[in-house]
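Researcher: Let's do a round of design. I'm pasting the structure tokens now; please hold your answer until I've finished.
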């Protein structure tokens, strides 16, 4: 399955008074990593919206396991990969590494979405070209 890696510097605003990352910030990192995963495939959210007329990939379910704290000034690596690709939904695993150690793992389930004729958000079959790229080993 397709994967991507990105670097993230832990900023002061990411941390709580104990000087460790406040856990909701990890979800913001992982959401940005999902966007980066699609961009690495050649499909930015701008392309999805402007060229395909779809909304994007809203979250259905997410959960994380925390192994090691990260602190202000740490430079971490986030590895993201598709784990499953269904008809309209897909899974992603994000692994955040700090100093070579797995610090956080997050599993997401997302859905390909568009607006129907009445303007309501609804799922849509993932376009074949994008599905093929998700399943690729690049």
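Researcher: That's everything. Go ahead.
Model: Designed sequence:
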């Amino acid at each position: 399955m397709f994967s991507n890696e990105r670097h993230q510097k832990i900023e002061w605003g990411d941390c709580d008074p104990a000087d460790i990352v406040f856990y909701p910030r990890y979800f913001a990192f992982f959401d940005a990593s999902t966007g980066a995963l699609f961009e690495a495939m050649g499909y930015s959210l701008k392309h999805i919206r402007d060229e395909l007329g779809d909304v994007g990939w809203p979250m259905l379910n997410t959960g994380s396991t925390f192994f090691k704290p990260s602190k202000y000034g740490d430079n971490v690596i986030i590895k993201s990969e598709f784990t499953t690709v269904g008809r309209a939904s897909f899974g992603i695993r994000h692994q955040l590494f700090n100093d070579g150690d797995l610090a956080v793992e997050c599993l997401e389930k997302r859905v390909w979405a568009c607006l129907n004729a009445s303007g309501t958000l609804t799922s849509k079959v993932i376009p074949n070209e994008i599905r093929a790229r998700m399943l690729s080993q690049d």
